[in-house]
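A.,

Following up on our hallway conversation. Structure tokens first:
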């Protein structure tokens, strides 16, 4: 079954202004349930923009996005927020953690938009930390962590609502090679458990471990 479908999607930043920038140019793409996909391309080619659109963090200027066969209407912000929270876990480029706060607080953020008691939220957050092997770091401030630990926190946060889809933007970008392969293995295991995983990466060795690689250049898909 098709999880994501992009139909003639273009994205232009600062439309109509002097600094207008066409980041995506007529993208057509389908991704099935349970796929493990990498997106590669040079810096500035539009990888993050593509991932943000798939994850409903940003909307296309032109074209349509379908998730599970349902067309996403950009004006339906309530429904988009619900999909984003329950279906999609996003691992942001450079972790995107709140540095003054603890690991537990960071991992709890996606649950703030859901119903549930504080006790239940804490339990769910601790489960996610356990899955990533960092339960012992729960009360630490995130600025005291190593890069690999920060990335585990970012992945735990993406998993906390048990989404079916994990979108990871350069999850190994700032890590050494040993830590990188640990993080990649975590993502591969999540895919093996049935989650759809899409990884944006510079690293051709990571791309090789995925079942499918999409290469983009200047906002266009140039190879599959
Ligand atoms: N918020 C933004 N406002 C204006 N231009 C942007 C914005 N985000 C990205 N861009 C531009 O869009 C293009 C694609 O960026 P991006 O998707 O971040 O590429 P990548 O992730 O492949 O490095 C680049 O030229 C970048 O400068
Ligand atoms: Mg990027």
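Then the amino acids I'd put at each of the 224 positions:
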């Amino acid at each position: 079954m098709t999880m994501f479908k992009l139909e003639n999607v273009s994205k232009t930043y600062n439309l109509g202004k002097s600094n207008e920038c066409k980041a995506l140019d007529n993208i057509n793409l389908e991704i099935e349930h349970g796929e493990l996909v990498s997106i590669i391309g040079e810096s500035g080619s539009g990888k993050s923009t593509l991932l943000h659109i798939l994850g409903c963090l940003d909307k296309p200027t032109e074209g349509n996005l379908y998730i599970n066969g349902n067309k996403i209407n950009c004006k339906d912000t309530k429904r988009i927020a619900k999909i984003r929270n329950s279906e999609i876990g996003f691992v942001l480029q450079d972790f995107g953690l709140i540095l003054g706060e603890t690991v537990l607080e960071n991992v709890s953020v996606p649950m703030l938009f859901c119903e549930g008691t504080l006790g239940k939220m804490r339990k769910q957050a601790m489960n996610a930390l356990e899955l990533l092997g960092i339960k012992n770091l729960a009360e630490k401030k995130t600025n005291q962590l190593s890069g690999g630990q920060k990335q585990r926190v970012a992945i735990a946060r993406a998993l906390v609502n048990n989404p079916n889809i994990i979108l990871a933007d350069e999850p190994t970008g700032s890590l050494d090679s040993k830590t990188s392969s640990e993080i990649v293995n975590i993502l591969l295991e999540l895919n093996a458990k049935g989650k759809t995983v899409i990884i944006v990466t510079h690293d051709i060795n990571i791309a090789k471990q995925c079942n499918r690689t999409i290469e983009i250049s200047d906002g266009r898909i140039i190879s599959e």
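Helices lie at 47-54, 77-86, 103-108, 118-131, 147-159, 177-192, 204-208. Curious whether your intuition agrees with the design.

B.
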